[in-house]
Fold:
Amino acid sequence: MGRRLVKRYMAEMDIAAFYPGPNLSKRAREARTYPYLLRNLDITRPNQVWSIDISYIGTPNGFVYLTAIIDWHSRFIVGYTISNTLQADMVTRVIKNAVRKYGKPEIINSDQGSQFTSKEYIELIQSFKTTKISMDGKGRATDNIAIERFFRSFKWERLYLMCPETVIEVKLITKEYMNTYNYHRDHQRHQYRTPAEIFFNHEKKVA
Structure:
């Protein structure tokens, strides 16, 4: 059976293929990396650790990329952006917006991808003075497990079910899911409270 016939049958039966997307974790040559700071760390409060990562979203017209930042303790998504390119300014822009809105984290963790080992990213984090840079060990996806689990939930609970065909549809679906995830989706690890309840109520208690 040829490729065209398979493609036609899949279209008739509304079948979509799952397959590996782009490898977004390759670092640039000569890039500077930083040690992983989260091993055995007791994470007990919001803004103690943020995780940032990029995930691809396939559409009939090609890939777009979702950059998201999650607060490790509460699992609250403090920022995200969608772009059709993988430029470093996509990453720095979402970090600046999150810091402006919620304050600086003590640690921000990422993989060793080229966007996170770029000069623009490193200099931005260093400009916060009190924020430490942490990076996953090479080949250790579980080091950034909080944001990886979020991406998995987003894709299986919404993206794969809705099958967006345009960037506008991707943005609308993502915006709706972010609101649901932050404010309405409870988590067993926090006695079935939402990420927003944990993130904001902890701040009130400290104040």
Summary: The chain is about 40% helix and 15% strand.
